[in-house]
Amino acid sequence: MEIFWKLVLAYLINEFIAQTDFLGYWKNFNFKKILLHNTIFLALALILNFSALSQIWITVYGLHLNGWLTMAGIFILFISQDLWRTYTLKNFKLFDNTLHFLWDQFIHLTIIFVMTPITGFAVGAIALMEKTAMLLSIFVAVACGATVLIYFIERDIYKADYPGFDERFLLSAQRIVLCLFFLIPGFYWIILMLLWIVYGVYLKHERILDFSRLGIYLGFALSILAGFIARYIFLY
User: Whole-model pTM?
Assistant: First the structure.
C-alpha cells in the first residue's frame, strides 16, 4: 500500500498545508483556482510516486493502466468533485458546514483508494517508506487537518471565525507534541502524555492560552486517537 499512502500524504499536504486561506476561499468561485489547487496535488503525487509511475496500478475492463494514466484519471476526478461541490453550494444555496467538509474528504480519499493498487503491507526497505508515509499523513492530519475540522464544528455551533495564525500554530504544535509522545517505547509516554494534557488544561484555565475550550479538548481527543494509530504503525 505504499502508493496509496504516498497519495494520501500528497493529498493532505495539498489540502491542509499548500492550500492558503486565499486559495481555499477563492477556489470555490474560480475554475482557475480549482485547477491550480489540483495541479499542486498532482505535482506532489508524481514526485512522491515517481519510481512507480511506469508500473501497472489498476485494471479497468481489461485495460492495464500504469501510474501515469491512473494519476491523470485521479486528477480529472478530483477536479470534477471540486466543481460539483462548488456547483451544489452555489446553486442549491447550501451552507458549507462540517458535514460537507467530511463528505468532501471522504470522496477524495475514496477516489485514491479505488484508483491505486492495494497489495497489503510491504516488507523490508519498502515497508520503511510505507510507514514513513503513513506517519507523516497522520501528523499532517493532526496538525493541520484537525484545525479545519474544529473550525467547521465551531462555526456550525458558535458561528466562530476562522482562527488566526497564532491560534492555529499553537494548537497545532500542542497536538503534534501530544501525538509524538505515543512513539516513545515503554510506558514513560503515558506519564508524559498525561502531564502534557494537564499542562494544556492549566493554560486554558488560567487563560494563558485564551482559545476555545472545544478547540483544545477536541484537539486532545483527536491527538490521542491519532497517537494510538501512530504507535501501532511505528512500534508493531
Answer: 0.90
